[in-house]
Design brief:
Strand content: 5-15%
CATH superfamily: Uracil-DNA glycosylase-like domain
Number of domains: 1
Strand order of the largest sheet: 2-1-3-5-4
Radius of gyration: 16 Å
Number of helices: 8
CATH architecture: 3-Layer(aba) Sandwich
Length: 221
Protein backbone atom coordinates (compact mmCIF):
# COMPACT_ATOMS: atom_id res chain seq x y z
CA UNK A 1 0.00 0.00 0.00
CA UNK A 2 2.77 2.45 0.94
CA UNK A 3 4.70 1.71 -2.26
CA UNK A 4 1.54 2.20 -4.33
CA UNK A 5 0.86 5.58 -2.74
CA UNK A 6 4.45 6.60 -3.32
CA UNK A 7 4.37 5.53 -6.98
CA UNK A 8 1.16 7.49 -7.44
CA UNK A 9 2.80 10.59 -5.98
CA UNK A 10 5.79 10.18 -8.30
CA UNK A 11 3.40 9.98 -11.26
CA UNK A 12 1.75 13.22 -10.17
CA UNK A 13 5.15 14.89 -9.87
CA UNK A 14 6.08 13.85 -13.38
CA UNK A 15 2.92 15.53 -14.71
CA UNK A 16 3.17 18.74 -12.68
CA UNK A 17 3.79 22.08 -14.39
CA UNK A 18 2.33 24.42 -11.77
CA UNK A 19 5.43 26.48 -11.01
CA UNK A 20 6.47 29.09 -13.55
CA UNK A 21 10.27 29.26 -13.78
CA UNK A 22 10.95 25.61 -12.93
CA UNK A 23 11.52 22.61 -15.18
CA UNK A 24 10.21 19.18 -14.31
CA UNK A 25 12.83 16.40 -14.59
CA UNK A 26 10.24 14.43 -16.57
CA UNK A 27 10.15 17.03 -19.36
CA UNK A 28 11.51 16.18 -22.82
CA UNK A 29 15.22 16.87 -22.87
CA UNK A 30 15.58 15.96 -19.20
CA UNK A 31 13.52 12.80 -18.84
CA UNK A 32 16.41 10.49 -19.79
CA UNK A 33 17.93 11.38 -16.41
CA UNK A 34 14.69 11.21 -14.40
CA UNK A 35 13.82 8.24 -12.18
CA UNK A 36 10.92 6.58 -10.41
CA UNK A 37 11.72 8.51 -7.23
CA UNK A 38 9.93 11.66 -6.11
CA UNK A 39 13.05 13.74 -6.78
CA UNK A 40 16.74 13.47 -7.63
CA UNK A 41 17.94 13.42 -4.00
CA UNK A 42 15.75 10.45 -3.14
CA UNK A 43 17.78 8.39 -5.61
CA UNK A 44 20.66 8.48 -3.13
CA UNK A 45 18.56 7.44 -0.14
CA UNK A 46 14.83 6.90 -0.53
CA UNK A 47 13.88 4.32 2.10
CA UNK A 48 10.10 4.41 2.27
CA UNK A 49 10.26 2.97 5.79
CA UNK A 50 12.89 5.43 6.99
CA UNK A 51 13.14 6.60 10.59
CA UNK A 52 14.70 9.86 9.42
CA UNK A 53 13.68 12.10 6.54
CA UNK A 54 15.91 15.04 5.62
CA UNK A 55 14.29 17.90 3.71
CA UNK A 56 16.56 20.29 1.82
CA UNK A 57 15.52 23.52 0.13
CA UNK A 58 15.92 22.47 -3.51
CA UNK A 59 18.18 19.98 -5.23
CA UNK A 60 19.88 22.03 -7.94
CA UNK A 61 19.51 23.58 -11.34
CA UNK A 62 18.96 22.28 -14.85
CA UNK A 63 22.65 22.46 -15.82
CA UNK A 64 23.74 20.49 -12.73
CA UNK A 65 21.03 17.88 -13.41
CA UNK A 66 22.17 17.39 -17.01
CA UNK A 67 25.90 17.46 -16.25
CA UNK A 68 25.55 14.78 -13.56
CA UNK A 69 22.89 12.75 -15.39
CA UNK A 70 20.32 13.23 -12.65
CA UNK A 71 22.67 12.20 -9.85
CA UNK A 72 24.50 14.10 -7.12
CA UNK A 73 28.13 15.10 -7.32
CA UNK A 74 29.11 13.16 -4.21
CA UNK A 75 32.41 15.05 -3.94
CA UNK A 76 30.46 18.08 -2.77
CA UNK A 77 31.84 19.04 0.69
CA UNK A 78 28.29 19.69 1.93
CA UNK A 79 27.45 16.01 1.42
CA UNK A 80 30.44 14.92 3.48
CA UNK A 81 29.50 17.30 6.30
CA UNK A 82 25.88 16.12 6.25
CA UNK A 83 27.06 12.51 6.44
CA UNK A 84 29.07 13.32 9.57
CA UNK A 85 26.13 15.11 11.16
CA UNK A 86 23.77 12.23 10.42
CA UNK A 87 26.26 9.95 12.12
CA UNK A 88 26.25 12.28 15.14
CA UNK A 89 22.50 11.60 15.33
CA UNK A 90 23.13 7.85 15.19
CA UNK A 91 22.40 7.34 11.48
CA UNK A 92 25.35 5.37 10.14
CA UNK A 93 24.79 5.87 6.43
CA UNK A 94 27.09 6.87 3.60
CA UNK A 95 26.39 9.81 1.32
CA UNK A 96 29.53 9.08 -0.70
CA UNK A 97 28.12 6.38 -2.99
CA UNK A 98 24.90 5.07 -4.41
CA UNK A 99 24.03 1.71 -2.88
CA UNK A 100 21.06 -0.63 -3.11
CA UNK A 101 18.92 -1.50 -0.11
CA UNK A 102 17.15 0.33 2.67
CA UNK A 103 19.23 2.32 5.12
CA UNK A 104 16.64 4.06 7.29
CA UNK A 105 17.02 7.43 5.55
CA UNK A 106 14.89 9.35 3.08
CA UNK A 107 16.34 12.44 1.37
CA UNK A 108 14.06 14.92 -0.36
CA UNK A 109 13.60 18.60 -1.12
CA UNK A 110 10.95 21.22 -0.44
CA UNK A 111 11.12 22.12 -4.16
CA UNK A 112 11.34 19.09 -6.43
CA UNK A 113 11.65 20.62 -9.89
CA UNK A 114 14.73 22.33 -11.29
CA UNK A 115 15.57 26.03 -11.36
CA UNK A 116 17.94 27.77 -13.76
CA UNK A 117 20.88 30.08 -13.19
CA UNK A 118 23.18 28.06 -10.97
CA UNK A 119 22.98 26.25 -7.65
CA UNK A 120 22.75 29.53 -5.72
CA UNK A 121 20.03 31.02 -7.93
CA UNK A 122 17.05 32.59 -6.19
CA UNK A 123 13.92 30.58 -5.50
CA UNK A 124 10.37 31.88 -5.53
CA UNK A 125 8.25 31.57 -2.38
CA UNK A 126 5.28 30.35 -4.42
CA UNK A 127 7.29 27.27 -5.40
CA UNK A 128 7.49 26.21 -1.75
CA UNK A 129 3.75 26.64 -1.34
CA UNK A 130 2.87 24.62 -4.42
CA UNK A 131 5.31 21.80 -3.76
CA UNK A 132 4.61 21.74 -0.02
CA UNK A 133 0.92 21.10 -0.44
CA UNK A 134 1.09 18.78 -3.43
CA UNK A 135 4.21 16.75 -2.67
CA UNK A 136 6.13 17.49 0.54
CA UNK A 137 3.35 16.83 3.02
CA UNK A 138 2.18 13.67 1.18
CA UNK A 139 5.76 12.33 1.17
CA UNK A 140 6.05 12.79 4.91
CA UNK A 141 2.66 11.19 5.48
CA UNK A 142 3.53 8.19 3.28
CA UNK A 143 6.97 7.53 4.74
CA UNK A 144 5.85 8.48 8.28
CA UNK A 145 9.40 8.85 9.63
CA UNK A 146 10.02 9.18 13.34
CA UNK A 147 11.92 12.40 12.66
CA UNK A 148 11.84 14.99 9.88
CA UNK A 149 14.97 17.18 9.73
CA UNK A 150 14.73 20.39 7.71
CA UNK A 151 17.98 21.87 6.36
CA UNK A 152 17.78 25.65 6.52
CA UNK A 153 15.05 28.19 7.16
CA UNK A 154 13.29 27.85 3.82
CA UNK A 155 12.86 24.09 4.19
CA UNK A 156 11.68 24.53 7.78
CA UNK A 157 9.09 27.13 6.86
CA UNK A 158 7.89 25.13 3.86
CA UNK A 159 7.37 22.03 5.98
CA UNK A 160 5.55 23.73 8.83
CA UNK A 161 3.30 25.64 6.45
CA UNK A 162 2.50 22.45 4.53
CA UNK A 163 1.06 21.12 7.80
CA UNK A 164 -0.84 24.33 8.54
CA UNK A 165 1.53 25.40 11.32
CA UNK A 166 3.03 28.81 12.07
CA UNK A 167 6.80 28.39 11.63
CA UNK A 168 7.99 30.72 14.41
CA UNK A 169 11.56 32.07 14.75
CA UNK A 170 14.05 29.82 12.99
CA UNK A 171 16.87 29.96 15.57
CA UNK A 172 14.39 29.16 18.32
CA UNK A 173 13.20 26.14 16.35
CA UNK A 174 16.79 24.96 15.83
CA UNK A 175 17.52 25.17 19.55
CA UNK A 176 14.31 23.44 20.62
CA UNK A 177 14.91 20.27 22.62
CA UNK A 178 11.65 18.62 21.56
CA UNK A 179 11.06 19.90 18.03
CA UNK A 180 7.60 20.34 16.51
CA UNK A 181 4.94 17.63 16.42
CA UNK A 182 3.33 17.03 13.04
CA UNK A 183 -0.15 15.58 12.93
CA UNK A 184 1.07 12.55 10.98
CA UNK A 185 3.01 11.44 14.06
CA UNK A 186 6.47 12.61 12.96
CA UNK A 187 8.59 15.05 14.95
CA UNK A 188 10.14 17.94 13.05
CA UNK A 189 13.58 19.28 13.95
CA UNK A 190 15.03 22.35 12.25
CA UNK A 191 18.77 22.66 11.63
CA UNK A 192 20.93 25.13 9.75
CA UNK A 193 22.21 24.19 6.32
CA UNK A 194 25.64 22.58 6.59
CA UNK A 195 27.26 24.20 3.55
CA UNK A 196 30.50 26.15 4.03
CA UNK A 197 28.83 29.56 3.74
CA UNK A 198 26.48 28.91 6.65
CA UNK A 199 29.21 27.20 8.67
CA UNK A 200 31.35 30.31 8.31
CA UNK A 201 28.65 32.92 8.92
CA UNK A 202 25.66 31.60 10.87
CA UNK A 203 26.23 28.30 12.67
CA UNK A 204 29.66 26.82 13.26
CA UNK A 205 30.24 23.11 12.86
CA UNK A 206 30.58 22.55 16.63
CA UNK A 207 27.18 24.22 17.16
CA UNK A 208 25.62 22.10 14.44
CA UNK A 209 27.01 18.98 16.08
CA UNK A 210 25.12 19.91 19.25
CA UNK A 211 21.94 20.46 17.19
CA UNK A 212 22.20 16.97 15.68
CA UNK A 213 23.01 15.48 19.08
CA UNK A 214 19.59 16.68 20.25
CA UNK A 215 18.05 14.84 17.31
CA UNK A 216 20.00 11.72 18.18
CA UNK A 217 18.80 11.92 21.78
CA UNK A 218 15.19 12.04 20.58
CA UNK A 219 15.72 9.07 18.26
CA UNK A 220 17.29 7.09 21.09
CA UNK A 221 14.25 7.42 23.36
Amino acid sequence: MKSEKYSGLVSLRKQCSKCIGLRNPAEPGLSQFDSEEIGPWSRLHGDQNARVMVVGQDWGDVRYFQANKGLDNLRNPTMLTLEKLLQVAGQNVSLQKYTAGNHGLFLTNAILCLKSGGLQAQVDRSWFGNCGTMFLRPQIEIVAPQVVVTLGQQAYEATTKAFGLHPGPFRQAVESEKGVSLDCGSQLFAVYHCGNRILNTHRKYEEQVRDWQRIGAYLAK
